[in-house]
Design goal:
With 345 residues, the chain is an alpha+beta fold. The protein has helices at residues 66-76, 101-116, 123-138, 145-152, 192-208, 226-244, 250-266, 273-284, 310-325; strands spanning 2-4, 14-17, 24-30, 35-40, 47-50, 85-91, 157-162, 167-172, 177-183, 289-293, 300-306, 330-334. The strands form three sheets. The protein has a four-stranded antiparallel sheet, sandwiched between helices. The protein has a four-stranded mixed sheet with strand order 3-6-4-5, covered by helices on one side. The longest helix has 19 residues, at 226-244. It is globular, with a radius of gyration of 20 Å. The protein binds adenosine-5'-diphosphate and magnesium ion (MG). Residues 24, 40, 43, 63-64, 67, 89, 91, 95-102, 105, 188, 190 line the site of adenosine-5'-diphosphate.
Length: 345
């Protein structure tokens, strides 16, 4: 779940996510053959694909099987032995809400499949393989933030991730600050085409400026380009937010979140009226700040509030939103936890 810094990761920028206390587990046993068979609790169907990654991920049925198939292909390209295994997935990460259930799945499945294939693989490479699997599965050219966060998460901390350097610094979340998340009740149809368009537009601007990515652009260079302007300003907001977070300066933090939301709404144009209404409801009910989190076009809002009042702010804000929109929001208090790892037998 991203506190601040959206649509910056694929432009080599800064993000400040945390791993929240929802998780996906993959239990696996070797089956001695050359097939990988997967079930997922609560999901239709059973996946049965070649262990060597030769099945075309975007042809796999049921559709959720495209993620494991994509991961198997990504790992085959990294030298994984085609060892078969049977796997059971269980997850309590809400699906299609901007909390990246797909990355929870692809990261956990990458760790499992690498383990089952005896492939030694470093953490960044796990993230890259999981992302490649997701891109093969969906055709959407996402960034690496979700996968890195799922792996690098540190309990009680947010992560300042530099997506150009692929490095991270854990930033303490003070006890005085509560992080709230609420789903606006509108599923995020990934809006893949809009996502790809925005990304391509930003990349074209970077090229026209002679830059490797928008990470290197100055505010002056992009002042008249709303897409690029969002990316450059958002990177600066992430850095400022990370500086103010440890001491819990709610006024500073909240203002940065509201600026981020306005920029995503007006410049990057990935908000919808429901997300705007939910942000307003949080602010009216006492949150210090709120913003859409994730790709946009539906899904979740993240808000921060003074710790003792966090749950009450969440309850009142979701009630206000329900009354004004007729939508059914789902919210929770988010805690930062450690990232994914092999659990052993
Ligand atoms: P998000 O990542 O924001 O939750 P996406 O649309 O990117 O939304 O990914 C949701 C898709 O990921 C689901 O439709 C399904 O295909 C797959 N997925 C997520 N969690 C699971 C799971 N536990 N088991 C099987 N597939 C899952
Ligand atoms: Mg996803």
């Amino acid at each position: 779940m991203n506190l601040i810094g959206d649509h910056t990761d694929y432009h080599g920028g800064l993000v400040l996510p945390m791993a929240v206390d929802r998780s996906c587990a993959v239990r696996w046993v070797p089956n001695g053959g050359d097939r990988v068979r997967v079930r997922s609790e609560g999901m239709e169907g059973r996946v049965d694909v070649a262990a060597d990654g030769s099945d075309d991920p975007d042809q796999v049925d049921p559709p959720w099987g495209r993620f494991p198939a994509g991961v198997l292909r990504a790992l085959a390209g990294r030298g994984r032995a085609p060892a078969g295994f049977d796997a059971d997935i269980s997850s309590d990460v809400p699906v299609g809400s901007g909390l990246s259930s797909s990355s929870a799945l692809s990261v956990a499945f990458t760790l499992a499949a690498a383990g089952a294939g005896g492939l030694p693989i470093g953490t960044v490479e796990v993230a890259r393989a999981a992302l490649e699997g997701e891109v093969l599965a969906t055709g959407v050219p996402g960034g690496l933030m979700d996968q890195l966060t799922a792996l690098w998460g540190v309990a009680g901390h947010a992560l300042l991730i530099d997506c150009r350097e692929l490095s991270a610094r854990a930033v303490p979340l003070p006890e005085s600050v509560t992080v709230l998340v609420a789903h606006c009740g509108v599923p995020r149809t990934l809006a893949g085409s809009a996502y790809a368009q925005r990304r391509a537009a930003g990349e074209a601007t970077a090229r026209s400026l002679g830059l490797a990515s928008l990470r290197d652009a100055t505010a002056e260079q992009v002042a008249h380009d709303p897409i690029a302007r969002h990316v450059v300003a958002e990177n600066a907001r992430v850095a400022a937010f990370a500086d103010a977070l440890p001491s819990g300066e709610l006024g500073v933090l909240g203002a940065l979140m509201l600026e981020s939301h306005a920029s995503l709404r007006d410049d990057y144009r990935v908000s919808i009226p429901e997300l705007d209404a939910l942000v307003d409801a949080f602010v009216e009910e006492g949150a210090a700040g709120a913003r859409l989190t994730g790709a946009g076009f539906g899904g979740c809002v993240v808000a921060i509030a003074a710790a003792p009042s966090g749950q009450a702010v969440l309850d009142r804000a979701t009630e206000r939103y329900r009354a004004s929109t007729g939508r059914e929001p789902r919210g929770f208090v988010a805690r930062a936890v450690d990232g994914a790892r092999p659990l052993g037998a």
